[in-house]
Design goal:
Elements: H1 6-34, H2 38-45, H3 51-74, H4 78-87, E1 96-102, E2 106-112
């Protein structure tokens, strides 16, 4: 049985901790700050996206972060595909990342399939 690299464990725990902390603080912020602050409510209501949808998007994103961290610790294969497709916009296949010197921006990350 292969062992998980230490870097994967660290990343998984970072996702779990940040996802959990963000879920709690977001809930407290909505309950204590936004609901009782007229300026904040007005600013949020100016968005073309309805307020309940904004809250739902926030919670879904944070839940995905938390669940992905737990799944990484359990060794679930779908997490890698989730990260490649959703976070990086890459199709689900093997890519090799290299860096090359660029005149305008220092180094640039290249993705070759």
């Amino acid at each position: 049985m292969r062992t998980r690299p230490a870097s994967m464990t660290v990343i998984a725990w970072i996702l779990i901790l940040l996802g959990g902390i963000s879920l709690v603080t977001t809930t407290l912020m909505i309950d204590k700050v936004i609901l009782h602050n007229p300026a904040a409510r007005e600013l949020i209501s100016k968005s073309p996206i309805p307020v309940p949808v904004q809250y739902a998007m926030t919670y879904v994103g944070l839940l995905i972060m938390f669940v992905a961290g737990v799944a990484m610790l359990k060794g679930q294969n779908w997490v890698g595909g989730l990260c490649r497709r959703d976070c990086c916009g890459l199709p689900d296949r093997d890519y090799h990342f290299t860096t090359e010197r660029s005149d305008d921006s220092g180094f640039r990350l290249l993705c070759r399939g």
